[in-house]
Amino acid sequence: MNHLANHQDNTLPNDFQLTLDTHFVSCMLLCKKYGEPPIRVVRKSKPDEYGHQRYFDRLGYIYVYSRYVDEDQNDPKLLAEKRRREFLEAAATYLREKKNLVICPEGASTTSEKSPLPLKAGAFRLAAYVDPEPLLVPVVVINFDKKITRTILVAQVRKPLRLSEHLCKPIVDRALFAFINSLTAQFREWVAEARNLAAASTLL
Fold first, then answer.
1. Which helix (H) or strand (E) covers residue 177, if one does?
2. Exposure check for the chain: N or C terminus, fewer CB within 10 A?
């Protein structure tokens, strides 16, 4: 799914910001349909984000790491490869258990107007790694970065796809990135459609 920035009204006293778009997709769509919440892939907290850390530590989600975490390690390339491997193994285990994962492959959040940012390769490398091959289900969200009492929220589930429908094995990086760029462009069209849908609606 694309990932939208937080409105300032969603900041709690401990400076933890609730990401309403991912919570909505997890709780109101996936949990409602499948009877259990999905496993989310979330970024590891910054050293001063105590609220963020305490909140996500108790939920059993999969962490991904940014450069600001452990950046003083002696061998950052080796550390990054170790963490990529740990991510693939943890996420693959959940998928083999038929658990749903929620991933925001942009790697950052942005406004509805600028969404989506370019998609990164991690989620798609995971799809190529797992056997049996998982479905990729695009979810498009819009206006969750706005004040929710003054906007129309949209969340759309698009047609599922599999990497094997678009890429031949062995998957080489050039073909993978071409597919990702194409999907980013398609996501941009879906977001524009969702914005138009929201604009055509009226607040009650």
1. helix 173-200
2. C
CA-to-CA distance for 9 and 68, rounded, in angstroms? 26
Per residue in 92-140, pLDDT (tens digit) is 999 999 999 999 999 899 999 999 999 999 999 999 999 999 999 999 9
R_g (Cα) of the chain, nearest Å:
17
Angle at CA of residue 64, ends 77 and 72, nearest 5°: 40
Is 0.85 topped by the overall pTM? yes
CB 69 within 8 A of CB 91: no
Query: Residue 11 in 3-state DSSP?
Result: strand
Residue in the block written with tokens 């790491």: 65
Interatomic CA distance for residues 76 and 195, integer angstroms: 41
> Counting runs of H as helices and runs of E as strands, what totals does the chain give?
6, 5
Alpha-carbon distances, residue 204 vs 57, 112, 143, 144, 150 (angstroms): 38, 22, 16, 18, 10
> What are 78's two structure tokens?
């080796």
